[in-house]
Description:
Blueprint: E1 28-29, H1 30-37, H2 41-53, E2 60-66, E3 73-80, H3 82-92, H4 97-108, H5 119-153, H6 160-164, H7 172-181, E4 185-187, E5 195-197, E6 206-213, E7 221-228, H8 230-241, H9 256-263
Antiparallel strand pairs: 1-3, 2-3, 4-5, 6-7
Amino acid sequence: MHQHTESINSPNNLVPRFSQSQNVARTMSSREISELLDARHDNVKRTIERLSEKTVVRFTASEETSHDGPGSRPMTVYLVNKRDSFIIVAQLSPEFTAALVDRWQELEAQVVSPQQLTTLEILNIAMESEKARLMLTAQVEQQATKIHSLENLFKEGMTHTQFCKGLNGVNVMQVGNYLEARSWLYNESKSGTRHRVGSYARDKYMTEHQVEVTPHGKDPFISYTPILLKKGAARLYDLYLAGELPMKKTWDGLFTHDKAQRAA
């Protein structure tokens, strides 16, 4: 994920930073968006393609060299403009909109020097800064609500099934298959279901508890139970609010945090 040298809550992030460089960054790649969101690049590209089919956003395809593994190979990336990047991020992970605002400020800081700005341009910058401040305030309030909900829902040592039982409307019987499709889990059994934590999610979203089982008259073996970590619970909760988790057909359309707010 892209690392910022300044905190997202820093007031300095609300003020454009200028340099003497005249290089203009007019697009952002799907690869960079995936790094900002800590999301799979393929998921970002599928979201762009889906929105493009509805003529909501536009993109152009480009090639870049991948450095994900040994050797290098060409990889197709999509380039989108500033407007469309916000729409894409809002679809994938709304809580990271502030990170995208920061990145665009860094890119736009290279466009002109302060001496070249007119009074109208300075006023426009001030207006954009105020919009960013209001957006950040909304993000902080939204994050506080999520943290409060997670504190009530998540307990250390929970499995993904136990956690999802606290999410109104989730089909907990399908969550294991859903996480398997997202590479969080894999099935080590050829005849049934025996989930293990995949390398993608290991020690990031999930871990495993090991127990030695000694059946009567048989050799002992190690039983593994996937356990949800706090970051994994937060990610599952975001996917839940985004409508990505498998839901029951009888779901009433209410999310857990909405019910909690009404009760309060």
